[in-house]
Amino acid sequence: MAGLYDELLLLLHGVWSRRWVALGVAWGVCMLGWLGVALIPNSYQSKARVYVNTQSLLEDKVGITQVQSQQDLDRVRSTLASTENLEKVVRNTDLSQTVSSQRDIAAKITTLRENITVMAQADPSMIDITAASADSSLSDGANARISQQIVQKLIDIFQEENLSGDRNETKQSLAFLDQQIAARGKQLEAADQRRVEFAQRYVGLLPGAGSISQRMDAARQEINTIDSQLVQAQSALSAMNGQLAGTPQSLPGVGPSGGPSALGQAQANLAGMRARGWTANHPDVIAAQREVDALRKAGGGANGGGGSTPNPAYLSIRSMQAERAATVQALGTRKAQLQADLNTMMAKQVNEPGVASEQEKLDRDYEVLKTQYDKLLADREEIRLRGEVKTETGSVQFRVINPPSVPTAPAAPNRPLLLLGVLILGIGAGVGVAFAMGQLKGTFPTAARLERAIGLPVAGSISQTISAAQVAIDKQRMKWFAGASGGLAAVCLLLIVVEFVQRGMA
């Protein structure tokens, strides 16, 4: 630790012994640096904050969502710094007084593009527009005014891009769609005319509507449906036939007192059971059948008599049986007709494959054109409605939160900080030069360093003797050095004060 301390003292002694060299280098570096700082032109910056409202209840109802409006906003923001818009800024501000040719305008546009910033905040509805002006050929006041004019003109352009841009875009879109609709309409009429001419040439060859494949598919589907209905109708008819076979057509005789005989009564009960759907294995049906058989063997019962009456149950079942039979017949007839048509179409498809293929192609072309035509009509109506909504309600509403103002102080450079930085750099350069000179010159400040350098023991050293006159001279030189060092700091402080005074005057 002691060795390091001694080495540090030796280094400081070497620098101190060359302090005038260090001070001269510091003065030279500071003067050059301060001159460079003075030559840097002031950059004046103006800033404005704009609130953009992209929410609209009516626009949401017609399909103009906030996301779409935000996309429009991003598009305008990205094109705000386009060459066309920046040329408007140059021609409508005081920058026009500094240009005399198209080349000058192009140079100003390049400079503006580097000095303009359009940035969205965390809230996408808030947008900051910043512009800077640092033209060395203009005064500080002129640069300050131009920066404010640039921001104001950008705000005006921003509004124009949204208010008038939407109307122009809507008009252009509607005009384009009108052209496309007219072209598609002519193509659709031509396709329909070809279909009519084809139908006139081959009338009766391919009956029905739609292509032959579509009609064949429809016929097969209807046949499948009729088959299912026919199975159900035949099952119902078989049930009616079974009931009808087990039901007598008439009821035998009535008794002397006008009531039914015992045999007739038993047969009526049995017929009623069968009419209700009871089978021959039902216990009540078996008992009723035994009673009828017994009465028949006994000769019709004690109260038997002649004559008979129609059986109402038989007549009812007979009527339902006729209805079921008619349904089965109708379904069979319809199936036969469809099958015949299907066979005819299959035969036509085999015998005339070119006709069927041509018809399918004409129908397909017509459907494609009609779909495109209908979609263009729907798109045109949607764009027209959206355009009216944007025109009436405004797609984007602006409110300037912080209007651009004329800056009173330059935004760059930060001259006080640069002046201090140059001072520190000059002092460091001076110390560095003095240290380097001490390392390059072959002197030995102590006897121990001389021993290490030559590798031989040193017998002794002689101390420096300073006279009173030399002490007075050293004191006078120290005062000069302190004055020169203080003057360097004073010049830096003076330059900083001048900078603040100029800012206040601006």
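Second entry:
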Amino acid sequence: MTGSGEDWLSDGLNVTGADSGLWVSGVDYIAGWREARVAADRLNRALLSMGFELSAVRAVASANEDGRGVVRLAGWPDAVDRLAQMLEARSDHDGGAA
């Protein structure tokens, strides 16, 4: 996923704590992470198309303790608030349909 250059993951939004924990032998974390990565990349492309900078808000792929893919949204509060406002406006316009 492209964004603010190759260093977009280390631009100040600390998302490393989300995956803290021990890995369990025999659990396929990579498969879950890959699935999450596809979804996170799609969301990041959508965020970029809406005018967001990935240095302000972005989707981050990870896997939980069972190896299931997880996508987390990481962002500065003002950018996340702007995204929430956009989603609320869309929901109001479509009668709540997503």
